[in-house]
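Folds abound. A case:
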Amino acid sequence: MPHSHSDPAVTIRRLRCQLSLQRLLSQRQPLETLGPAVIRVICESLDWDAGSLWIMNASTALPEPHSYWTAEDDGLLRFVTESAGYPFQPGAGLLGRVFATRTPLWIEDVTRAPDFRRSELAREVGLRTAFAFPMLLNDRVHGLVEIYARDVREADDELLEIAEGLGTQFGQYLEHAAFEQSLQDFADRRRRLVRIAESLRATLSPVDLTQLLAEGLERLVPFTTLALYAQAGEQLAPLVIRGMEWLSTETEAWVIPADQGIAGWVMRTGQAVMVNHAESDERTRYPEGAQVTLEHLMAFPLLREGAVTGVILMNRLQDPPFSHHEFDLAESLIATASQALEQSHLIRQLRAGEARKSAILDSALDCVIVTDENGVILEFNRAAQEAFGYEPVDVIGRGLTETIIPARHARAHAEGLNRHRETGEARVLGRRVELDARRADGSEFPIEVSIQETRVGDRVLYTANLRDITERRREQEELVRSRDVAHRSLEMRNEFFARMSHEIRTPMNGVVGLTRLLLGRPLDEESRELAQHLIHSSEHLLTIVNDILDLSSVDAGRLVLHPAPYTIRDLVEESLAAVRPEAERKDIQCGALVAPEVPEVLLVDPVRLRQVLLNLMSNSVKFTDHGVVALECRCIGAPGAERRLRFDVRDSGRGMSKERREQLFSEEGSVPRDPDGPSGAGLGFQIVRRIVLAMGGGIELTSQPGRGTQVAVTLPCVEAAPHQRLRPSAGVLTTNALDGLRVLVVEDNPINQIVAQKTLEGWGAAVVLADRGSVAIAKLEQAPVDVVLMDIQLIGEDGFTVTREIRANAEPRIAAVPILAMTASVLHDARERCLEAGMNDFVMKPFDPADLLRKLTAATGRPAPSSGALGNPLLRPGDSHVMQVMRTGTTIDIAYLREVSRGNDAVLLQTLRVFLDMLPARLAHLRESATAGDADATARAAHTLRPSLKMVGLTTLESEAARLESPGLATIGQAQGQHMAERIEREGHWALLELRKLVAKLESRASGEAPGKP
């Protein structure tokens, strides 16, 4: 049964289709360009696979195939191209029935339709549903549109109604285009006739006369050759031969007796003649040996003072024959050149032209108004009558200003006319401008107008073509509203990602802080070096996260580089070390080579270059199941010339298709998920490409499915002096500057509590912990503290609210306590909001120890300490530690915790114990919220759980929790959400068993019972 769609998304697509077609048709493109574009817009907007356009042939009065569009599918292309070869039969088949009934028609399954002549072809290419509609105007069919789909679709009344409207719009366009073309042809022909006639009247030389005639006639009456014969004694010799240029050098061969051939006949009789198929006419016979080839010809006498002075012979060697219209046209021009009968002929032509012009103007879709130089209306066509509500008899002879121009614009219009008359300055002539116009009833509406100036003798006429653009204005206003909505959405998205940075920075705070605590303890050389590697890697990751999350920079295309001298070999070794653990897990041979010619120290941005190499090598390892991943660095270019640094990352992995490679380099940079492998590579490659381009380099990718991938990156090779080598520092500040200071840390994340507590205690401070605002205020009232470190995002109420409550406390000791904000937020107004809430200063997380210590001493009035030594070795990432949960297959990667706690089992144990204690309750809370169908509570529970899962490398479960947070339970559905939450809880408990085994092993090692590493 026919139906209509109520899906808002479908409705929006259809509205967009209509708007897109209106815009296309309003652009007045040639039909050759417009046809395929219209079919493409209909198919893509309405989600159909292919379509074809048929246009009426004026001579056969039947539609013929004109253009088509298909999705990238060989079967569809075959269908539309072979369909064009089927003879059109009115009343038969889909198109024939639409043509006969002048109404849209829908076939749900063309393979079963008895009267669909292309059923077998449709079945072969997998085509099922089709519908067609006519391009109709005033009950006249201008063309047909046929649309196809591969799936079976029920008839859709709403879509057929839309299609009928689209057909009417297209029909209007075709009729208007035909009118415009006829108007243009008429105007061009009249201008050419007048111009040629005026030139001919001023020409005396027969040769010049023939050249002018030939130039004019070439555009009006196509010919093969045109020759001017003049009598020379008893012969006719060609003075000029135009066309077939090789003949111009052999004019002697064209000399003929004056009493023979068609030229001789015209010379004797003085009559013009047209002979098609010249071999059948005795008058065209030339003597044997004359090199004159004739097929279709016209010959005209050239007269002066009544005597024949020459003959103009026009020859056409191919069909079609000359028409009587062409003969009359040529004769009139040649008669003008002969100064006989031309004046009366031109008068008849001009009168006929005026009649045709009036008919064309009255059938024009646009308003056409002609005025004189004073603005008096001379012509007012039917479209103008309908648009303005005037009868032509009422406006012709009236001033334009008092008729259609609003009163507020009348003065400016009059001044423009005067300025043009006096100075010739024209601000609107020849341009399209938008103005307001007034109807007969006084109402106003917007118009687009184009004004052309025409001079007839001493008179100046202005022809204005006007179009009502009320609908276009409405569409523009809608687009502006849509743009504003998009801008607001972009602002909300930027704010969302900025707030998300808090969640990303929170575990980063644990990594950086715990590592600095480790560096403050006595460590052997190897442990200190590894801890310093970890802190540098964390800072590197933080830099990258900051740039990705700073949407204002990304959207504006800004990427700040910080070049510095750095050893390329160190960068290559670091990148290799970072991916080696995963490569070893997959039994992939992973290696790197730096060519001897590469300088020791180059000027590069080490953070950005490391990001490029790590991304490319990580992708190679990810998409390689076995074999080799190699990184090679070398210099290209001759010594002394402009050299380039080239990095080649090769792998023997699965490779990729040409389509995937092209999508990697597209602006969108998205790559469809590989059904046989891991997803990814698209966004990462886009980031790499932007970084490489920003560094003045280039990037190339070659790959074949099943034969691996190679990515080549070239960068400027700028050498730096060896003594400038950059050695990034990382370490912990050692000082007793906070001895006796009592600090209240308000933080709801257990890991961050550990980091803050250990850092502050290392400086001699006494730490009081609170995980929410109410607890913080209670502890302030129990005992005095010297300073408060306040997290902005807390459970229940935020840090701003808690700060305002403290400042409003009746006890001065509490109200005046210094408060430092601690937050991972990157919102631009975060600092201002902290100060407005009453906080003394602002510390970003992960915090820099020196910055935190400086602000603590400043807030409490203590002297600033001198900084201790900072370790300064080259960073090398440590190995990861991966465990497999046998019951579920879930992977646990504790690389994060191992790196944080390297060399200090007590910190590792404390962190794991906190995780083991809090995870069961958070898993249960997520499941209970999803079972109850509470979307908000489920999203909050997932948001709270995700950092904990990510901390121990439970990335699979963390991804599942992310789906419950966004798009959330409302989109996923309660049943599906409950199933996901139960699976997260079940697999989480199995993972806890493995982690408890690890904790037991560490506890045994700490007590000396079972030494070893996890």
Notes: The chain is about 50% helix and 20% strand. The chain has a mean pLDDT of 76. Residues 470-519 form the longest helix (50 residues). The longest strand covers residues 444-456.
